[in-house]
Amino acid sequence: MGQPIRPAHSRQGEKLLQRLLKGNALLVLMLGLPVFAGIAGTVLPAFGYLPALGGFQFTLAHFEELARQPHMLRSILAGLSAGLITTSAAVAIVATFVAGFAGTRIFARVQHLVSPLLAIPHAAAAFALAFLIAPSGFLLRLISPEMTGFMRPPDWLLPNDPLALSMVAGLITKEVPFLFLVTLAALPQLPVRSSGQLTEALGYGRLCGFLISLWPALYRQIRLPVFAVLVYSLSVVDVAMILGPQLPATLPVRIIEWAADQGLSPRFLASAGALLHLAVVLAAMAIWIVLERLGRSALAVLTYSGRRFPNDAALRIASALAMAACAALIFMGLALLAVWSVAGLWQFPDAVPANLTSRIWLRTLPQIWEPLRMTVALGLSASSLALLCTILLLHRNGSAGRNMKATGYKLLYLPLIVPEISFVFGLQILIVSAGLTPAFPSVMAVHFLFVLPYVLLSLSAPWRELDPRFEKIAAGFGKSASEILLTVRLPLLFRACLTALAVGFSVSVGLYLPTLLIGAGRLTTITTEAVALSSGGDRRVIGVYALIQALLPFLAFLVASLAPQLLFRNRRAMRM
Amino acid sequence: MTRRARRFITAAILLLGVAGPAAATDVSDWNAVSAEARGQTVYFNAWGGSENINAYIRWAGDEMNARYDVTVAHVKLDDTAKAVATVVAEKSAGKNEGGAVDLIWINGENFAAMKRQGLLFGPDWTTKLPNWRYVDHESKPTVLKDFTIATDGLESPWGGAKLVFFYDSARTERSELPDSAVGLLKWAEANPGRFSYPQPPDFIGSSFLKQVLIELVDDKAKLDKPVDDATFEADVAPLFSYLDKLTPLLWRKGKAYPQNYPEMKQKLGDGELDIIFAFNPAEASAAIASGELPDSVRSFVFSGGTLANTHFVAIPYNATAKAGALVFANFLLSPEAQLRKQDAQVWGDPTVLSLAKLPAADRSTFEALDLGVATLRPDQLGPALAEPHPDWMTRIEAEWIRRYGAAN
User: Fold this and answer.
1) What start and end residues bound the annotated signal peptide (chain B) (predicted)?
2) Residue A2 has what pLDDT?
3) What distance in Å separates residue A241's CA from the closest CA in chain B?
4) Confidence bin at B15 (pLDDT 50/70/90)
5) Is A280 helix (H, G, I), strand (E, B) or coil?
6) Of B211, B155, B214, B164, nearest to B352 (Cα)?
7) Do residue B294 and residue A367 have CB atoms under 8 angstroms apart?
8) What are phi and psi of B358, to 5 degrees?
9) B85, B96, B318: which is closest to A267 by C-alpha?
């Protein structure tokens, strides 16, 4: 041996470093670090320690103060039940629909109808729903006074009802499309047709057959997204402000209010609240796990009972109707927003406005320019950066790309499973403590955090599925790995990259809390403007903002589907 | 250097968080102030919940840009306390220069809090503004005393406010309208579900509580001083027994409240509410002009008087663009800006200037201003009730939330 022997631990260290640089570790750094730093930024002030704001010693005083806040239990329980009901309803609707219709023509149709719903920002969907269901809303105007006799809106507590039912409805319409698309991605890996034929031959109804043969395997695959839905609906702020209860508001909304209060002690209080919210989310997860166990036992009982439930037509139709209702409510609401944005005086119970005017658009457009520019700049930069990182990650993982599924895949959900209020708030405190002024780069970085998982998720499937022979041929010509990436793989995946970019863009457009907290109100986007207008803003102006908010993702997807057509005019196979 | 390049450099400096130390701004040398203001960006932190006000601020910003090369960025708040919180946080973080807030739309307890904690730019700069000479500080006592707290030139008056009620004459008879808080309770008994107020701690909602408190408290002199803990319970007992009776008669039986006064305006238009109120006497006329309310809406006040105050702009002690903020505050006081503000087609907010002090041409344009069909003339607005000490507002808000903060 000519070389000196290096100590073993150093060789191990080198290996570790190499492994760290490869793929997943990079992901850990990018997604994990900010999340855990943010949680630390919440935990320390919750226990009183934040030198920058004059807190030097650890104390439980802020939790005592939290406990003294009026009506805390109500706030927590309302949010907790809303989250659990939303999640169970969304899972039930998607499960029965997939069970009842997988492989049929209706299934394909609904698929096209539901996909665009995912791109519509939560706030826009909430506005759409609010304009429909309020006592002075469109649905009642449509049938009044002819069928109801109402000349004036009835005194019904909708939306903002204390039981949070309207908030649950608003969340369901947005979470059903999400779960549905996640389920669609998981379905091809299951023997849908053969097991369907088998259970049918044994005399099972479609629902029951699907439930006992395929559901357990399917649920395992969509379990993380289901938890993401649970956490999201527990922690949501914008939808809760538009549709949720106000007397008292849910915990996340109250945390935001404390964080904005004058004086310093409310900031410590808000940190303690954010930590409490983390505990509530953990409790909700525990409850959900118990519900999962109960469901599993019930399914086992059903399986061994041998009951076949062959007549399930009513339930299947109900699930199809529920799916369609989600889409119909949102699209009708959006159309209504468009009408409001050009309405003149429009009094109850008129079903149409007395006159139309472009005045609101003309007055609002010049003001909308600045937030619009900010929204597009944030969306494009965050999603481009995310796309770049995604390509880097997928490329580095190379042939090991399949491993992404195992560890990396789970990690992706980290920013989605930790409640955003609990760590984004901490990040804000860290930024303030560091003496930084809220500015574009920090807001963009936080957007990136939420955009990356979605971009990675939407690009990783096409990346894996690309026929490996293209690259093998290129390698045979002696091309290097990066040459192959640039000249073969990326052009072939151009459309998929654009779609991932559009997905990332629409996620960024919809982000409310991170923009509000990290931007400290200085960086206004269409979403923050729209939510700021939500209570009391002129419906016409809200209509303009919500419409633009919903249009942006739509335009992004349009570009993503048109650009390849134009670019590859002379390559028939790549035009689709 | 082009303006764009300069702005880029400013942005870069802000981004790095290393704004250089600003020289002390001397207000008495106005030429120096205007020169220093050139190229600055003023972050104006102002409530952003009303479209016509936002449009007015945008107009003022455009004028500032064209005339003084000052950029105005409106940071739209849903509660002024947020801007106060920002300055408080900056102070305790030791950020005594280069703060994020340059100018705040403020009055009442927020001003009191900032003044008490020494968070305001001073000493007296407002009386040194060139346009101060037009301000009516003789017959408008609230220009110098904000909620009983002396302004000491730390905030510059921007507009007047008077609590005014609105109703739709197509639905409600003029003769049925209440003339006092007690009358309002009787009216609500006859018309359940048709009255409400914005959910405290909304500013206008808390103002309604103060209106009732002033009318019902046994000794009004108590309200000029901070709350006396020993007698607080007894002092507010009439207010809360009133509210206990009123709450079940409110819109949604008091299980939900409008979130601010523009929402009440919407609900008057929808027919959900029959009596609403605002702090701007021209609110209804402006809403009729914009098609939000039918032209049958009219105004009324209580003959015993309603709450009146002045709203101001103030500069935090650590503001980055003090000179720009001063020039903007001065512009907001100009006869031209005040005239446009009072126009019901634009905003309709009453001026703080004295017509007698204005040049003849400006005075006649003010006098010729069409107040709008639903606006009461100044002599019809009734007596002005002074705001209680800010302490009262904080205390009754907390008490309200404790009692009514959870619907049953």
Assistant:
1) 1-24
2) 40
3) 10
4) very low
5) helix
6) B155
7) no
8) -80, 155
9) B85
